[in-house]
Specification:
four-stranded antiparallel β-sheet, alpha+beta, 21% strand, 4 helices
């Protein structure tokens, strides 16, 4: 089966005073953040590309996106339709890092986001230490 050239998924942008914009993809159970709307959209697009590429590579089922109008929102949230062009993502990942989903307690995730922790770097450093890879 031919892989789609483009995916479209709704993202929820959450706005809190003096904090980065939190971005979640309800259909994909993943999140990121951005310092302003432009950065948030770029971060969301990058995350969507990584997640969709990972699902494709692992042969997992691609979930159907919720219609933008059906996304439930709080007063400080906005639904944004995010798209990603997959041919460029696939090409960029020939020699690539891989995406892994991890589960964290919500309080720990919130504390790390508040402190602008780079999750990927922390995980890489911890794995290198655990595996004694220097």
């Amino acid at each position: 089966m031919k892989k789609p050239e483009r995916y479209f998924y709704p993202a929820v942008f959450t706005y809190e005073p003096e904090q980065e914009i939190a971005i979640t993809f309800p259909d994909l159970d993943c999140a990121t953040s951005g310092i302003n709307d432009d950065d948030a959209l770029l971060s969301a697009r990058e995350l969507l590309g990584c997640v969709m590429f990972g699902l494709e590579e692992d042969g997992e089922e691609i979930p159907s996106p919720t219609a933008l109008a059906d996304v439930e929102l709080e007063n400080n949230e906005r639904a944004v339709l995010v798209d990603v062009y997959m041919p460029s993502i696939r090409q960029a990942n020939v020699n690539r890092s891989i995406n892994r989903t991890v589960t964290l307690p919500a309080w720990l995730n919130a504390a790390a986001l508040e402190r602008n922790v780079n999750f990927s770097q922390v995980l890489q450093d911890a794995l290198k230490a655990q595996l004694h890879l220097g």
